Amino acid sequence: MDDSDAMESEEEDFLEARIENVSISQMGFVVFLKCGKDPRAVPIFIGTNEAQSIALALSQQPPPRPMTHDLFKNVLEFLDCTVTRVEITDLKENTFFAQIYVNREEVDELEFDARPSDALALAIRWQAPIFINRRVFEEAAIIESASEAPHATAEKEPNSSPGGTRSPLDQIQEAMEKAIREEHYEEAARLRDELKKLKSDN
Fold first, then answer.
1. Which H/E stretch holds residue 32?
2. How far is CA 48 from the centre of its chain?
3. Do 81 and 102 contact (CB within 8 A), yes or no?
4. Fold classification of 14-163 (topology level)
5. What is the pLDDT of residue 133?
6. How far, in whole angstroms, is CA 160 from its chain's centroid?
7. Under 8 Å between Cβ of 148 and 29
8. Do 154 and 194 touch, CB atoms closer than 8 A?
9. Burial of 17 (0-12, 13-18, 19+ CB in 10 A)
10. Is the pLDDT of residue 143 over 90?
């Protein structure tokens, strides 16, 4: 396989995506990615600051002072760099992975690992295309509806999948028990606190 065939094969592995919306659920903020006319969407949980940054950029409302992603964009522009595209590349253990591609004058394209939330926030600011790995889309996409209860394991921007008849409380309880079994005690403590908060809200 020559280089052109390899490049074409790589491009076929990715679907162009768009941000459908940013919503808030019982488990936090979630950004939905859609591809073409496919009715499904990929939900990715993000932090509060990242959700605000993405929402402001989507609405084209400049903040009173530059947010982190605005600052990063200003620095890149000063260095004659341009974000050309971002990719959601992988999904491992309910955690999404992304890459940001940057061009600089007289330098080949540079590639940086990133959280999806940061990659999306920069893509909006640069009006750069967003791509998602085809396998990741097929694995994580759901039919968006009010009755869906996305599965969340928190700040790691996890995969979301239909919860069936399980409640959000059941899903968090299951994630906490899994974290304890795997001796991820810090994550288990965080999930325990989230579980307490949801129970008190109910």
1. strand 28-34
2. 13
3. yes
4. Bifunctional nuclease domain (3.10.690)
5. 97
6. 11
7. no
8. yes
9. buried
10. no
Please enumerate in sequence order all residues whose Cβ is within 8 A of that of 184, keeping only pairs 6 or more positions apart, or say none. Answer: none
Give the Cα separation of 62 and 78 in Å (integer).
Answer: 19
Q: What is the chain's mean pLDDT, rounded? A: 78
Residue 194, CA distances (Å) to 49, 161, 180 in order = 18, 19, 15
Which amino acid is located at 128 in the chain? Answer: A
Residue ranges, CATH 3.10.690.10, the chain = 14-163
User: For 107-129, what is the mean pLDDT?
Assistant: 94
Q: How many residues does the chain have?
A: 202
CA dist list (Å): 162 to 12, 42, 152, 173 = 27, 11, 11, 16
Q: Whole-angstrom Cα distance, residue 148 to residue 2?
A: 45
Q: Is residue 176 within 8 Å of residue 196, measured between CB atoms?
A: no
Yes or no: say if 96 and 88 are a contact pair by the CB < 8 Å rule: yes
At 151 the pLDDT is 42
60 CA to centre of own chain: 20
Please state, in angstroms and rounded to a whole number, the distance separating the CA atoms of residues 11 and 5: 10
Identity of residue 53: S
